[in-house]
Amino acid sequence: MIDLHVHSTFSDGSLTPEELIGEAARAGLSAIALTDHDTTAGVPRFLEAAASCSMTAIAGVEISADVKVGTMHMLGYLLDPSNQTLIDRLKWLREGREARNAEILGKLNQLGFGLTWDEVAAFAGEDVVGRPHFAQALLARKIVKDKDEAFDKYLGKGKPAYADRRRMTPEDSIRLICGAGGVPVLAHPFTLNLSLGALKKQVAELRDFGLGGIEVFYSEHTREMTNQYLNLAKEVGLVATGGSDFHGAMNPDVKLGSGFGSLHVPDDVVAQLRARKR
């Protein structure tokens, strides 16, 4: 059993890199990838923690890409976390997050909530503050009953406290990951809100830029979606990857390795990704 989509306290997860390795060992995983948002800062600790066990630990990242419709996230696997171009570009993205966070806080307070930055940051880990931390602050204040309500009423795209931020184009995201020696993979394709035909067209175009895979096995994918994306990956010639998108306490219903209980990512995906490295 493997899980190639996991977050730590360096973005919006609740477990440290070391705790993730321990949890993965208890879950019986043979391979795990750390894919924090816009940062690889937790990767060295993650790899070091895994060195004392037989588990395969994979250096990764998750980058938000700019698209006209829906939401696109690009995963990068087997990359060099010390690549300076990667570090600089991810820093640029995080600086954009900081400006966006200030805007979100201002909009929430215009709605009369009176939140402080310290309240929000208290829910973050070592580095990146994101919308899930605002959701937790709203939940702690009992302004919302759960995270979903926070996004549905205030933080989601088009809602009163939403603010946009810096993003790279999908092509630039792919180039950045490839330039750091990694393999780019399109995450949870349903969030693009495209028809299957339109998705196939876009995925084929991104493949020509260097896209190496598509996330087929995912916690929120139905069986029908999984089959559709698996066929798409085969048709376009991409690796069918997968992961739980584990965040720990941020989303306690999603378990490491098994998602909502039925997730199973084939063990040979890691070898397939390694074969795509340039």
What does this structure look like?
This protein folds into two domains: about 1-90 and about 175-275, TIM Barrel (Alpha-Beta Barrel), CATH 3.20.20.140; about 90-155, DNA polymerase, domain 1, CATH 1.10.150.650. Helices cover about 40% and strands about 15% of the residues. The chain contains ten helices and seven strands. A hairpin with a 6-residue loop joins strand 3 (about 55-65) and strand 4 (about 70-75). Helix 1 (about 15-25) packs across helix 2 and helix 5 crosses helix 6. The chain is globular and about 55 Å long.
Keywords for this structure?
278 residues, alpha/beta, TIM Barrel, 7-stranded mixed beta sheet, 42% helix
- SS summary, helix count: 10
Shape: globular
* CATH level 1 name of the largest domain: Alpha Beta
Number of DSSP E strands:
7
Q: Gyration radius, to the nearest Å?
A: 18 Å
Instruction: Bin the strand percentage.
Output: 5-15%
Summarize the structure.
The chain is α/β, with parallel strands linked by helices and 278 residues long.
